[in-house]
Design a protein that fits this description.
alpha+beta
């Protein structure tokens, strides 16, 4: 008999979705078996204890740019989403979707431009690598340009978040209750982990910003960085867009930070010692008011 699993967990299916991001990039690295065996033999070591990995293109600037860019995109993806499942899927709020989609679309276009620039230089880089690798060069280890193109990919996929109260399964009553309990625990923990992620990000950011706003005994302030200040503004917005549980404490913190940072920029802070100190005090108070979360 097909039964409906009804849970008491809070449902956020209408306020968020699951997003997966993956960027594939060719590493251009290959194990050189002959060199590995030679190193082992030269050192009278047991077979298999040493591996020589060679960079097929030496130091290719265009490929390095693609690899670095993909890593930065992954960081952007993490910064705009929250953890959700062990397989790497992230939670994206509907309020954040349009901004996230806009940013990732722009990054995807830039990624493909960088890949195209690399592919245009690929054959030339192979000729350069031959001189760099010497006897370690093996032309058969290099894929064709068409084959190489398939090694680069940029994928973003969205999926609806399952409703906690919509879980149908054909089992007996006893098993159904057990699954219900397990699912409630998992779902509630996943939501709490996602919310805690925002608090942790905010804690780290405010800790850094407050330290940068501090001055020494001689009245000289520490160096301020735009990236840290801009991140504080971004996280303040995320306290609203990512508050899928309608947490009153999170909303109160958003209002506190919004009031502390309203109309400010680093130029104003740098040019006014009193404003710098007021901002430091306000953000220090906000930092002290954050939930502990074992931080």
């Amino acid at each position: 008999m097909l039964q409906t699993l009804e849970t008491n967990t809070p449902s956020i299916s209408s306020a968020a979705m699951v997003v997966d991001f993956n960027a594939s990039v060719w590493t251009a690295r290959k194990k050189d078996r002959k060199a590995s065996d030679d190193i082992t033999s030269m050192n009278y070591a047991a077979k298999g204890v040493a591996n020589v990995s060679k960079n097929l293109l030496g130091d290719c600037e265009e490929l390095r740019a693609v690899q670095k860019f993909a890593s930065n995109v992954r960081n952007t993806h993490y910064s705009m989403t929250m953890p959700w499942s062990d397989n790497g899927s992230r939670l994206l709020t509907t309020a954040q979707y349009f901004r996230y989609n806009e940013v990732m679309t722009e990054l995807q276009n830039e990624f493909h431009s960088l890949v195209t620039a690399f592919l245009q230089e690929y054959e030339w880089e192979i000729t350069q690598a031959q001189a760099k690798l010497g006897d370690m060069f093996n032309r058969d280890e290099y894929p064709t340009r068409d084959g190489l193109e398939d090694k680069f990919a940029f994928r973003v996929s969205y999926m609806p978040l399952p409703d906690a109260g919509d879980f149908r399964i054909d089992v007996g009553n006893e098993a159904l209750e057990q699954i219900k309990s397990q699912y409630e625990t998992h779902y509630t923990k996943a939501i709490q982990t996602a919310m805690n992620d925002i608090w942790h990000k905010l804690h780290d950011n405010l800790t850094t910003l407050v330290r940068q706003l501090d001055v020494n005994d001689e009245g000289k302030g520490n160096r301020l960085y735009d990236s840290v200040f801009d991140r504080a503004i971004e996280l303040t917005d995320m306290l609203g867009t990512c508050n899928v549980t309608q947490d009153s404490q999170m909303e109160a913190m958003r209002r506190k930070l919004e009031q502390a940072l309203y109309g400010l920029n680093l130029d104003k802070i740098k040019n006014s010692p009193s404003l710098r100190e007021d901002t430091r005090k306000n953000l220090s108070a906000a930092l002290a008011a954050l939930p502990s979360l074992d931080m």
